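Batch manifest, entry 17 of 40.
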Amino acid sequence: MHYTVRACALGQVLVAATPNGIAAVLLGDDKSALIDDLQQRYPLAELGTGGPVLHRWSDTVLEILAHPSLQHIVPLDVQGGTEFQRKVWKALRSIPPGQTRSYGQVARHLEQPQAVRAVASACAANPLAVLVPCHRVLRSDGGLGGYRWGLQRKQLLLEMEGLFKQ
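Output type: structure tokens
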């Protein structure tokens, strides 16, 4: 797995990929912490940096981070996660830019209406920030809820999509 860390409007972004596609998009403020997060998520992966395909994909991720309402088709190589988490991540990819869902709506979409907390946990475990748009999932009262990479980033992403102002 190869990775690169680049600056963006949300701080730092780590983009990691295998030959099959993007495996991780992690957001943060500290490059070392992002690399540590990647190593913890994929402890068996041999990590390297760079590569022309990765650079092109990271350019696309930066464009999406700057304009989250854009939809780009990029190959994903989703690794890890439980079967339920992977179902949630797939459901999140179906939320169009400019729209949100509640955790409960996602649970009902998966025909597991009692699984609201499990949906929230799956959102928190999402390894693909913005590409799997967990920032578009809100509490049932319209509040932000949580966000693995910080509520300020979630709010900013939603504001960039014209969705949320607090």
